[in-house]
Amino acid sequence: MEEKTFVGYGYGRFQTDSGEMKDYCNVFMLEDFNGTESNDYHFGGQKAVKYGCGSPTVWKDIKPGTRVQCYFDSRKKISFMVPVSKA
User: Fold this and answer.
1) Contact partners, residue 30, CB within 8 Å, separation at least 6
2) Cβ contact 43:35 at 8 Å
3) What is the C-alpha to C-alpha distance for residues 59 and 54, in angstroms, rounded to an integer?
4) Nearest to 58 by CA among 34, 28, 21, 36
5) Cystine design at 43: which of 19, 26, 33, 78 (Cβ 3.0–4.6 Å)?
6) Sheet harboring 21-32: ordered strands across?
7) What tens digit of pLDDT does each residue of 6-52 get?
């Protein structure tokens, strides 16, 4: 389980080069930039990171901007999200 800020989603179907239709489902979560800065590469703040997701039902009734607990399946896709209660 990891705690993240849910900022968006995208799902649907696309056609592969071989003509096969494939489903996709992704969520976007805010994360801090990380890595090593250099003279040619600089960063700061946060960015939206894309994660694979089991289905659109994972974020049902959760609005973008909500802090959530994320649970991952064996394929490292988000399979369940729960809003973090504000104390």
Assistant:
1) 4, 5, 7, 46, 47, 48, 49
2) yes
3) 10
4) 28
5) 33
6) 46-52, 21-32, 2-15, 67-72, 78-83
7) 999 999 999 999 999 999 999 999 999 888 889 999 989 999 999 99
Contacts of 38 (CB under 8 A, 6+ apart): none
Quick check: 7 and 48 in contact, CB under 8 A? Answer: yes
Which tokens hold the place of 45? 């703040």
Q: Is the whole-model pTM more than 0.70?
A: yes
Helix (H) or strand (E) holding 28: strand 21-32
Q: Which residues pair with 2 in a beta bridge?
A: 70
pLDDT for 86 equals 67
